[in-house]
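TASK: fixed-backbone design
INPUT:
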């Protein structure tokens, strides 16, 4: 039985991978998108759906979930093949140079590959002390799926970086109260956001570490230990949002016969890797001067897609303008 061979397979269904899939369709490519999570959107949807994004051209600001929704509508114009909840494990080639993409479900085939896996598999950094795991998802949260879950309640936020500060500012608009807890007096976030937080009604607890959690009458008692001291303080909240960052794992790339720079994939100006017809875009790609923004990844996509198609089909003329296909 003959196997279907795609022109381009995009590995990773975050915003940049979704745009790569759309742009490949714009170039009339037979494209396949593989995503390890049960839904598209990558970290943007899984971890920051309610967070405002400010670096996408044309949008003064847009929530992560809304950006993903817009990208899904954009992709739908060309009806690409999308495979969800499937992790790529191996990337080999047959005698004809066709890529055999081995996954935990089945093997797919493609003439070229674009890697858009971001920072790889990810998981939140957990609290450093033992607590009842049954509290997670109800009382202890590591990301926000819906702002409405925090409406009119007392919220504590642990962390001192941009994400913690952004959530504190966002939740302060709808929660009954917001308390942010950081182990240093100085925050690591954007200066303007830190200043806005200090001028708000957000309660700031520094320098404290979370030490223990207990549940009393459906409320969290959060024991705080002051840094370099034996002093303790207890605050009460309905929910705790932990923003200590996330760990990522891109070790699978080591087995794909491509040159790496640390955990990232080394690419040239066409986003081409050290392996013929394998490209990398977005946060997984490295070149000198790289700035890891969604906007940067969007800009890298046309270079990768166009180079792949011009290599595969040199007789095809590249469209001069992205609007030409609709005219």
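OUTPUT:
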């Amino acid at each position: 039985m003959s196997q279907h061979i795609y022109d381009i397979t995009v590995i990773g269904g975050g915003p940049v991978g979704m745009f790569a899939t759309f742009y490949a369709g714009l170039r009339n490519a037979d494209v396949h998108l593989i995503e390890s999570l049960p839904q598209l959107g990558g970290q943007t949807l899984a971890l920051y759906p309610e967070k405002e994004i400010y670096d996408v051209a044309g949008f003064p600001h847009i929530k992560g979930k809304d950006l993903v929704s817009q990208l899904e509508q954009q992709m739908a114009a060309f009806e690409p093949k999308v495979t969800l909840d499937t992790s790529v494990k191996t990337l080999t080639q047959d005698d004809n140079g066709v890529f055999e993409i081995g996954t935990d479900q089945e093997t797919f085939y493609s003439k070229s590959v674009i890697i858009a896996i971001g920072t790889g598999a990810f998981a939140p950094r957990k609290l450093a002390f033992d607590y009842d795991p049954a509290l997670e998802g109800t009382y202890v949260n590591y990301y926000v799926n819906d702002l409405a879950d925090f409406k009119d309640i007392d919220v504590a936020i642990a962390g001192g970086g941009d994400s913690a500060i952004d959530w504190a500012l966002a939740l302060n608009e709808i929660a009954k109260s917001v308390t942010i807890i950081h182990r240093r007096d100085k925050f690591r976030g954007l200066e303007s956001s830190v200043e806005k937080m200090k001028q708000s009604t957000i309660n700031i607890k520094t320098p404290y570490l979370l030490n223990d959690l207990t549940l009393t009458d459906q409320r969290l008692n959060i024991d705080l230990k002051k840094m370099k001291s034996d002093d303790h303080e207890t605050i009460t909240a309905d929910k705790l949002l932990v923003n200590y960052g996330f760990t990522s794992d891109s070790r699978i790339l080591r087995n794909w016969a491509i040159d790496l720079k640390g955990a990232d994939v080394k690419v040239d100006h066409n986003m081409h890797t050290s392996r013929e017809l394998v490209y990398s875009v977005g946060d997984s790609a490295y070149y000198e001067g790289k700035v890891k923004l969604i906007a940067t990844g969007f800009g890298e996509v046309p270079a990768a897609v166009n180079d792949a198609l011009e290599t595969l089909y040199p007789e095809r003329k590249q469209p001069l303008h992205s609007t030409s296909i609709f005219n």
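COMMENT: The longest helix spans residues 294-312.
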